[in-house]
Design brief:
This protein is of the alpha+beta class. The protein is 31% helix and 21% strand. It is built from 6 helices and 11 strands. Strands 1, 2, 3, 4, 5, 6, 7, 8, 9, 10 and 11 form an 11-stranded antiparallel sheet that branches. Helix 1 packs antiparallel against helix 2. The chain is elongated, with a radius of gyration of 40 Å.
């Protein structure tokens, strides 16, 4: 079937009424034929993007993606910063403790059993730690503490069998350890403990509780994973920077004071444990440190 415009059909019908041989008829037929033979304009092709336009489009897409990533990083940074800018506080017994601040990070879970003007008794829930033995004979030597801290931090931030980054906790525990390999009681802090016979200290990080026992293993053989069982401890808090002399003085005073406690006594073989809750840039009067001795009920 030959397709044509409606106007052409109308003209054809009109011409059919003219007699053959009529000059007007011949001219009209010729005009209609010419119009029918005019091709319809082809559809315009879709314009392709030039190489320059493609590059510009890619730059804008990358810029948009980078902006989105930057915004997420800024939000994460602000969230982490807020944990230190807006710290949480323990219940204080005096002005010194009232001025102390603790970063809003996961810490050891405990329940206060009793409290006096000089110390408090806590029941600490079980937790897992990553532990290293510190070089040197001091638990608070800067070089030894830095080396041990870095080893533990590397494990926490990805140097493990899963290459997994774990959240920071608080505090850092430093504890004197017995030569028989006694488990350290720590949760949030890094713990440093000393082996009595060898004058060695151990430092440990409390590991995030969400992992339970399903923790990634360290790649460095010097880092050990341990579980700390439930225990009861007597705790004294103090501010400032921790030194060996300060720890010795406060440990002796706590042991003497506990002799007058009606319910609890220092557990045989218990060694002092030091918890440090704050990052290095914290002002001395805002720092929270604690020394702890494991205790047991006198009736047991």
């Amino acid at each position: 079937m030959f397709l044509c415009e409606p106007s052409m059909v109308a003209q054809t019908l009109t011409l059919s009424g003219l007699p053959p041989g009529n000059p007007s008829r011949a001219m009209a037929i010729s005009m209609a034929t010419n119009r029918a033979s005019v091709p319809t304009p082809p559809q315009q092709r879709r314009r392709t993007m030039s190489a320059l336009e493609a590059r510009i489009s890619l730059v804008f897409a990358l810029a948009s993606q980078t902006s989105s990533v930057s915004q997420r990083l800024l939000v994460d940074l602000a969230t982490e910063t807020a944990k230190y800018v807006f710290p949480k506080r323990f219940e204080s017994r005096n002005l010194e403790e009232a001025l102390m601040s603790v970063p809003d990070l996961e810490t050891v879970k405990f329940r206060v059993l009793s409290r006096t003007d000089q110390y408090e008794i806590r029941e600490v829930e079980p937790y897992f730690i990553a532990e290293v033995t510190m070089p040197g004979k001091s638990g608070f030597d800067f070089n030894g503490a830095s080396q041990s801290f870095n080893l533990l931090a590397e494990y926490l931030f990805g140097k493990n069998t899963r290459r997994e980054t774990m959240e920071m906790t608080t505090p850092v525990f430093t504890r004197k350890a017995r030569a028989d390999g006694e488990k350290m009681e720590m949760t949030t802090p890094v713990i440093t403990k000393r082996t009595e016979d060898q004058e060695k200290w151990q430092m440990s990080f409390v590991l995030p509780s969400k992992y339970g026992a399903d923790l990634p293993l360290p790649k460095d053989a010097s880092v050990r994973i341990k579980e700390v069982p439930r225990k009861i401890v007597a705790v004294v808090a103090f501010s400032g920077f921790v030194t060996d002399e300060e720890v010795k003085k406060r440990e002796a005073k706590l042991r003497q004071t506990l002799k007058n406690d009606r319910q609890f006594k220092v557990k045989e073989g218990s060694s002092v444990e030091v918890a440090q809750y704050n990052p290095p840039f914290t002002l001395p009067f805002q720092r929270r440190n604690e020394i702890a001795l494991e205790v047991e009920n006198k009736k047991e």
